[in-house]
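FYI - complex with nicotinamide-adenine-dinucleotide, inputs then prediction.
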Amino acid sequence: MKILITGGAGFIGSHLVRLFVNKYPNYTIVNLDKLTYAGNLANLTDIENKPNYSFVKGDIVDATFINKLFADHQFNAVIHLAAESHVDRSITNPLEFVYTNVIGTVNLLNAAKELHKADPSKFTKFYHVSTDEVYGSLGDTGLFTETTAYDPHSPYSASKASSDHFVRAYHDTYKLPCVISNCSNNYGPFHFPEKLIPLCINNIKNNKPLPIYGKGENIRDWLFVEDHARAIDVIFHTAALGSTYNIGGHNEWTNIDVIRLLCDMMDEKLGRPKGTNQQLITYVTDRAGHDLRYAIDSSKLQNDLGWKPSLQFEEGLSKTVDWYLQNEEWLTNVTSGAYANYYEKQYSH
Ligand code: NAD
Ligand code: TYD
């Protein structure tokens, strides 16, 4: 089986590529990534020379390029993760999110449709990786299920909701074999330090302020990234075509509690007196349209397909902090922008 994974140089994509390349030596994995600011091939150094892995630099918005890539490779399946993924960036530049998340997804669907039309027995799956943010914001109670109505509030979640609708439309209209999953907030190694947890780890390390939007009372449902990759593996191999699965850790935390826990954990790990890091907490202007609460009901995935999260949050967060403290070079390269040269060094001749 030859699988195209898009966005494989990003945070979640790199964990998924690593899992598939190592676990399925008989699969050929092609990683397509534009290498935006969020894509970093240094996330994949441990598997880059494996015989069942190759990397292609390219833009999913470029339909001509995508059509040729599919014609050349004759993929059997696609797992689509490439996206603009940061809500704050979507507020300042929404159109970029429409190009990549909506038009890029439709370009991939069109190319997949052609392969499927040519031989339905050979092109067998289009797996679209999406987010719980499409469901909007919860009040104090309730959980997002697979049948919760879409109600996106940010340009990011609106673009992801749109791409989900296109995937379902291609399944229903063209009988393209599609599957979708909607996952809650991920955390773990290789997370770009513009997102809450890695940003605060980096700032604590450097004694810089920890910016908490509003009152810090917004709630997110955190899942360790390797658990998300395992869920994608299970869904990819066993979910019925046309189905949707929610993925989440049943692990709700207010932002301020996450950051307090992180501060205390890092006081200990860095040998600072208890309470030192919490002094860095700084309340700043709230994000526009800031969703109050996300919480996922993943019982369909747990009951139907037997997946469950493997780590408690404290354990996963501690592993994550250790990884950032042990991988100073990765963090320095990412914050300085030096990682952009990695592709040139590694792949250009
Ligand atoms: P990320 O921003 O870390 O990585 C995205 C990757 O896509 C990068 O490597 C980037 O270079 C690539 N990319 C962007 N535009 C591209 C384009 N036009 N053509 C080709 N490649 C392009 O994102 P992530 O956090 O790893 O998220 C991956 C997917 O999972 C996204 O679809 C996101 O919506 C979804 N998701 C993320 C989370 C989360 O908590 N991070 C939760 C649920 C779902
Ligand atoms: P983020 O990591 O951007 O993920 P998402 O917006 O996709 O949930 O943000 C997680 C939460 O943390 C969200 O409620 C916004 C908040 N936040 C801050 O309070 N300060 C920050 O500097 C950032 C980046 C996020």
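Residues 2-188+224-250+295-312+340-347 form a domain with the Rossmann fold fold (CATH 3.40.50.720). Residues 6-7, 9-13, 33-36, 38-39, 59-61, 81-85, 100, 104, 129, 131, 160, 183, 185-186, 192 surround nicotinamide-adenine-dinucleotide (ligand 1) (CB under 6 Å).
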